[in-house]
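Tokens as discussed.
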């Protein structure tokens, strides 16, 4: 089922504030109400339409890549916990021991995430 034509045909209802359609238009594929209105009103040429759609496609690809990286990271953490003998004793460890165990289990490459984890573990 193709949702985009349905949204474009109903953009006037969306602009009048029907909540379900407004939410669908904004969330379905990432098109703003202004973009939908511009296309429906005939103010967007083919080349610009292709450019706008290509930007949306690129944004969704980047989001999918980020989600895949997170999924793979979680798979690695699961494997690390499953392979860890120390994880069997996690409930009997001190906070400091659990913090060290978690630091060993979680391999994070992004520095900002690593900093947040470090702060959370040592609070």
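Sequence:
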């Amino acid at each position: 089922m193709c949702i985009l034509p349905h949204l474009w045909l109903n953009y006037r209802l969306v602009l009048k504030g029907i909540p379900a359609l407004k939410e669908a238009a904004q969330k379905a594929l990432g098109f703003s109400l202004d973009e939908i209105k511009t296309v429906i009103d005939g103010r967007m040429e083919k080349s610009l339409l292709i450019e706008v759609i290509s930007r949306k496609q690129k944004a969704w690809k980047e989001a999918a890549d980020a989600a895949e990286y997170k999924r793979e990271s979680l798979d690695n953490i699961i494997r690390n916990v499953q392979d860890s003998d120390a994880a069997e004793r996690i409930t009997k460890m001190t906070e400091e021991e659990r913090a060290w165990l978690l630091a060993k289990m979680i391999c994070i490459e992004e520095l900002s995430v690593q900093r947040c984890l470090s702060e959370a573990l040592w609070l």
